[in-house]
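in:
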C-alpha cells in the first residue's frame, strides 16, 4: 500500500494570507531532533541577536544547550514555541515515532506566517527517510510547503558562492528526470523564478541561464533530444512572455565563473546538476530558498549530519545565513520594494 502523502491540516484564511506586521520575529524550526538541527538552531539564534522564535521541544533545546555549553535561559531576543516530542531522543538515532513531531514544527511555523505572527521561516534539516519510514510520503520541505500553502508551484533555489541556482526538478530519481521535464514544467518554473527574482531579490530584469539536460546540451540531437523538443521551445516561449532566459547551455561550461557571472540565476534540470557546483563553491555558507510561496522560507544547504549530533561540533554558519536572508527577504516583501 502506498504511504499517505504528507499534508498540512492548515487552512487558508479568507482565501489569502495575512501580511506580516513590522517587527515580527523569524520562526526557526529545529528539524530532526536526533540530528544537528537543535544545536545549529540554538547557535544561530544566539548569534542572530534579533527577534526569533525556536519552534521545537523546549526540554530538548534546554538539554542541548546544556550539553554543548550554550547559555540557558536564552536571552530576551530568543523565545521558544514548544512542541512536544513523541518519544525521547538519542542523538544520531532518529526514530519514525518523532516524524509527526517534525511535521508539526513546520505546520506551526506556517500557521504563524499565515497569521502574521512570524515574518518568515528558516528551517533546520529534516530526515526524509525517517518520515517516509513512519508511513508518510515526504519528498522534502519544498513540496510540503507548496501543498500546505496551496502554492501553484514552488521552486528550489540555492544562493551562495556568488551563484543563484534554481532546480527544474528536485528530489527525484535520475531515471525519472527526463520524463518529468516538460514544456509546462519549465514554463511555470521560469515564471516563478523570474517573478521572485524581481519581487524578493530586487533584480529589475533578471537574466536566467538555462542548462541543458544531456552532455553538451544534446550535441544537436546526437546525445539526446530533450533540448530540441522541450527545453529550447520552453525558453523561446518564456522570452515571448518577457522572461530574459537563454540556453540551453552545456552544464559543464555554464558554471565556469566567466559564464556564470553573466546570469542572475541559473536554472538546472536536476538536483545534482545544479547543487554539486554550488556546494563546491560555498558549502556550509549557502542558503536554500523556496520560491513561489505566499511566505518567505529559507533553509540550510546540508542535511541532518547524524554523525555530529550531540558532539557540539556542528557548524551553524549556513543556519545563520538562512535566518539573515529570511529577514532580508521578509523586509523587502513587506516594503514591496524593487531595487538593485
Amino acid at each position: 500500500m502506498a504511504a499517505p502523502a504528507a499534508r498540512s491540516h492548515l487552512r487558508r484564511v479568507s482565501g489569502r494570507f495575512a501580511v506580516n506586521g513590522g517587527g515580527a520575529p523569524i520562526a526557526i524550526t529545529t528539524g530532526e531532533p536526533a540530528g544537528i538541527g537543535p544545536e545549529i538552531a540554538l547557535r544561530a539564534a544566539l548569534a542572530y541577536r534579533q527577534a526569533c522564535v525556536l519552534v521545537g521541544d523546549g526540554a530538548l533545546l534546554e538539554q542541548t544547550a546544556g550539553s554543548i555549553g550554550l547559555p540557558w535561559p536564552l536571552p530576551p531576543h530568543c523565545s521558544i514555541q514548544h512542541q512536544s516530542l513523541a518519544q525521547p531522543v538519542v542523538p544520531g538515532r532518529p526514530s519514525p515515532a518523532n516524524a509527526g513531531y517534525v511535521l508539526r514544527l513546520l505546520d506551526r511555523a506556517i500557521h504563524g506566517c499565515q497569521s502574521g505572527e512570524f515574518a518568515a521561516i528558516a528551517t533546520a534539516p529534516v530526515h526524509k527517510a525517517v518520515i517516509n519510514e513512519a508511513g508518510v510520503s515526504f519528498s522534502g520541505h519544498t513540496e510540503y510547503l507548496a501543498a500546505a500553502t496551496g502554492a501553484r508551484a514552488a521552486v528550489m533555489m540555492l544562493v551562495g558562492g556568488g551563484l543563484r541556482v534554481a532546480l527544474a526538478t528536485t528530489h527525484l530519481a535520475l531515471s525519472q528526470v527526463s520524463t518529468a521535464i516538460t514544456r509546462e514544467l519549465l514554463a511555470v518554473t521560469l515564471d516563478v523564478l523570474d517573478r521572485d527574482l524581481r519581487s524578493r531579490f530586487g533584480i529589475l530584469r533578471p537574466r536566467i541561464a538555462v542548462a541543458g539536460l544531456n552532455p553538451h546540451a544534446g550535441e544537436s540531437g546526437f546525445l539526446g533530444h530533450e533540448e530540441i523538443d522541450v527545453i529550447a521551445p520552453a525558453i523561446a516561449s518564456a522570452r515571448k512572455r518577457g522572461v530574459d532566459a537563454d540556453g540551453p547551455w552545456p552544464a559543464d561550461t555554464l558554471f565556469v565563473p566567466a559564464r556564470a557571472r553573466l546570469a542572475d540565476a541559473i536554472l538546472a534540470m536536476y538536483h545534482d546538476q545544479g547543487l554539486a557546483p554550488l556546494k563546491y563553491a560555498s558549502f556550509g555558507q549557502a542558503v536554500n530558498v523556496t520560491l513561489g510561496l505566499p511566505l518567505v522560507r529559507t533553509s540550510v544547504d546540508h542535511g541532518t549530519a547524524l554523525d555530529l549530533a550531540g558532539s557540539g561540533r556542528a557548524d551553524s554558519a549556513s543556519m545563520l545565513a538562512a535566518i539573515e536572508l529570511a529577514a532580508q527577504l521578509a523586509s523587502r516583501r513587506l516594503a514591496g520594494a524593487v531595487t538593485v
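note: The first strand starts at residue 26 and ends at 29.
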